[in-house]
Amino acid sequence: EADIYQTPRYLVIGTGKKITLECSQTMGHDKMYWYQQDPGMELHLIHYSYGVNSTEKGDLSSESTVSRIRTEHFPLTLESARPSHTSQYLCASSDSIGDTIYFGEGSWLTVV
Amino acid sequence: GEDVEQSLFLSVREGDSSVINCTYTDSSSTYLYWYKQEPGAGLQLLTYIFSNMDMKQDQRLTVLLNKKDKHLSLRIADTQTGDSAIYFCAETPLSGGYNKLIFGAGTRLAVHP
Predict the structure, then answer these.
(1) Each residue's pLDDT tens digit, B55-108
(2) What is the Cα B43 distance to its own chain's centre?
(3) Which residues of B touch A (CB under 8 A)?
(4) Which burial class, exposed, middle or buried, applies to A42 when counting CB atoms under 10 A from its CB (0-12, 13-18, 19+)?
(5) Which residues of chain A have pLDDT under 70?
(6) d(CA A55, CA A65)
(7) How far is CA A89 from CA A1, A42, A64, in A?
């Protein structure tokens, strides 16, 4: 069983607030990812990291930013949340190229 | 290009077999995955198949891969109400360094008595 954790699981915040979604994994995986999924829709990669101090933009443009200061930690930040940011954000990690990618349980963000 | 397609809905009777189909476009993909998503939850890895395999069986799950037609299927034997969920097919193409998942839109499986 994978050990990848996301907090908060559910969050409702007001427009303009700053929010950080936390993601931690205890498997020592180098590669970590953030996906965004609107209800009933496809998953889209918004950020990924190949290791410490490595961050890349994904296929879907996002106003969020990420950092990777420690192997186990890959937080996602929205400096000023808007209603269009309302979505589910899924964090994932994997060990090496071609290896299985494990997902966290997701963070549901609602911006009002 | 990278594209994964699935039918959006499937309805089956409890106890019957379910077959969820998927087509992908990038023949460079080395691994193909099936994920399950229950309401309000993240994605759970169900199974995966390496591209040089034709079939993989894991308890009630059977994955069939036709690499020539770029067609992947997931068969669930003796489908139960707990199997009701959205099932996502995903590939890992070479263009993503084999480590970026490209997902289909998901197939919503409904199991009725």
Answers:
(1) 999 999 999 999 999 999 999 999 999 999 999 998 877 666 656 778 888 999
(2) 12
(3) 30-31, 33, 35, 40-45, 48, 88, 92, 97-101, 103-106
(4) middle
(5) 1-2, 96-99
(6) 9
(7) 21, 12, 11
